[in-house]
Amino acid sequence: MRNLDRQLVLISGGGFSTETEAYIDSFALNLCPKKEKKTLVFIPTASHDAINYIEKFHHTFREHDTYHLTKDELKNVELLETADLIYIGGGNTHYMLDTWRETGFDQRLIKMYEKGKVIVGISAGAVCWFTDVFENNQSFKGLGILKGSLCPHYESNEKESILYNEWESQSSDIIHYKLSNNENLHIINERIISKITVL
Question: Mind telling me which Pfam families this protein's record contains (predicted)?
Answer without folding.
Answer: Peptidase_S51
